[in-house]
Amino acid sequence: MLKNVLANKPIHSITKFTTLDYQGHLASIFWFTKCNMACPYCYNPQIVRGKGEISLESALEFLKNRKGRLEAVVLSGGECTLFPHLESFCEAVKALDYKIKIDTNGTHPHVLKRLIEKKLVDYIALDYKAPKEYYSTLTHHAHFEDFEESLNYLIHSQFPFEVRTTLHSDFLTPKHLNAIINDLHVKGYCGIYYLQNYLHVSQTLGETKEQQNKFKISELSSIIPIELRNF
Predict the structure, then answer these.
(1) Which of 3.20.20.70, 2.60.40.3760, 3.30.70.100, 3.40.1410.10 is the CATH number of 3-229?
(2) Three-class SS string for the chain?
């Protein structure tokens, strides 16, 4: 990597240790700044709106110092695929013999394809924010087709990945989620669909309140396996 690339500061902060974010692996999380969406329940407004504080050089030095104690790195955000030098950074992380998981909204399918083809990522968590007809309303991002391209590619490439949705019951109803479940079934998704319960924090991107609407899990379709998180 060139020195001027290493000097870039795209990372807001580092979670030094987690056993939850990359199942089966001891990992750290690198929180990349900026996002091309504005989901109202997002609990990282400071990451989405703020500037990076940590350079790539410092992040790599952190990983060098934890060799033998950590197995993997989760690249999250924000939206890490917005960073123009992500491929070079992944190459440097791989050179240190770490596994890489990427959390993404899937709106940059060309980035994901290239990382997979070059074996620079080991696992992807793909956020299915909302069904097509409601997608731009919730995310303030109009290009559902980009996400869909990523989803179709991951399904047909048989790359290890999961699909997940964050549920805030004031924004998503069983009807919305059943539309997602049906779409995944039709597309041939064979993995577990993870439904993540919104956990309220005081500061969200849309100043979201705690969930008011009751949500009945029993109303969800069972045509694909579903696993609940944080319920």
Answers:
(1) 3.20.20.70
(2) CCHHHHCCCCEEEEEEEECCCCCCCCEEEEEECCCCCCCCCCCCHHHHHCCCCECHHHHHHHHHHCECCECEEEEEECCHHHCCCHHHHHHHHHHCCCEEEEEECCCCHHHHHHHHHCCCCCEEEEECCCCHHHHHHHHCCCCHHHHHHHHHHHHHHCCCEEEEEEECCCCCCHHHHHHHHHHHHHHCCCCCEEEEECCCCCCCCCCCCCCCCCCCHHHCCCCCCEEEECC
